[in-house]
Write a structure and sequence with these properties.
7 helices; Helix Hairpins; globular; 69% helix; mainly alpha; Four Helix Bundle (Hemerythrin (Met), subunit A); disordered N terminus
């Protein structure tokens, strides 16, 4: 986080007993239980699911508020900042593994599963199956019985390319903001941060329109065979991460406007910037492997 550490900050910070872990766990329990009941047909569960999310968001707001107060009152020293850096590094590593699993699933389907279904071993079961990718030819969806509706694939022009330009531009703007903050120029830093947030919001809006276009004009859905499932799982989870990153940058910008962070103590800003650059890199992989190849 930030920052007014100075020489008075303790070498190690020992937080006071907190209710937040327990109350957050209660919110998560409500969410999981309600989601399970909803998918099993309980109509009331969608309301309890909303209650669970509101509960969790309220707890997180209070938890983050307390952490920010501890930081701004100079209770975090150098050791705490190191722990934050390690924590954010491991978190981003876990996200790398998360997306790595989906990229591996895409590769496995293209390089192994679909070719195997079109091999001699399955020729008697699916004689008309065509082992091609994307799986859009008649009978090429691993569904010779025509269970899957015909669909069209998403091309890189023009919405995905526009979104690529937006994310790459946002990576530049947040880097500019970081350099300005290190120079102690708070006003220009806030301006470039708002530009970054706006670029992230525009990306989400363009992706929402892309999904509308895919569903209503291309008939491309999550149920459209292996291509549809991998397309929406990869792009959908990435879009969710963009929204999370955008919210992080939004609240960091509000903290900047409140006078938080200094030129040499601003890891809250840096951690959000790390995450945003990670989101950019993942998108470049998506843009190449999903839209072009």
């Amino acid at each position: 986080m930030s920052s007014n550490t100075g020489g008075a900050a303790p070498h190690y910070f020992v937080p006071a007993p907190s209710r937040h872990p327990v109350t957050a766990s209660i919110g998560l329990l409500i969410i999981i239980f309600s989601a399970a009941e909803w998918v099993n047909g309980a109509d009331w569960a969608k309301y309890s699911l909303l209650v669970g999310f509101l509960w969790l968001f309220t707890v997180l707001f209070q938890w983050f508020r307390d952490a920010i107060h501890e930081s701004e009152t100079g209770q975090y020293g150098h050791k705490v900042e190191i722990s934050y850096r390690w924590s954010m590094s491991w978190f981003i590593f876990s996200e790398v593994m998360f997306f790595g699993a989906f990229f591996t699933a895409l590769w496995w389907m293209r390089a192994h599963s679909v070719p195997a279904l079109g091999g001699l071993d399955n020729a008697l079961l699916w004689p008309d199956f065509k082992a091609v990718w994307p799986t859009v030819q008649p009978g090429a969806t691993a569904s010779p019985a025509n269970i899957i509706e015909p669909f069209q694939t998403m091309t890189p022009f023009w919405l995905p390319t526009i979104n690529t330009a937006l994310l790459l531009s946002s990576g530049v703007t947040i880097t500019i903001a970081h350099h300005l903050l290190r120079e102690g120029k708070r006003g220009p830093t806030i301006l470039w941060m708002w530009i970054t947030v706006a670029l992230g919001a525009t990306f989400v809006a363009v992706q929402g329109y892309e999904y509308f276009h895919a569903y209503h004009e291309l008939n491309l859905k999550l149920t459209s065979g292996a291509y549809g499932s991998t397309f929406f799982m990869l792009t959908g989870f990435h879009g969710f991460h963009v929204m999370v990153g955008m919210l992080m940058l939004f609240f960091i910008t509000l903290r900047l406007m409140k006078g938080h962070f200094t030129a040499d103590k601003h890891f809250g800003f840096e951690g959000a910037a790390w995450y945003w650059h990670f989101v950019d890199v993942v998108w470049l992989g998506l843009y190449t492997l999903v839209y072009w190849l």
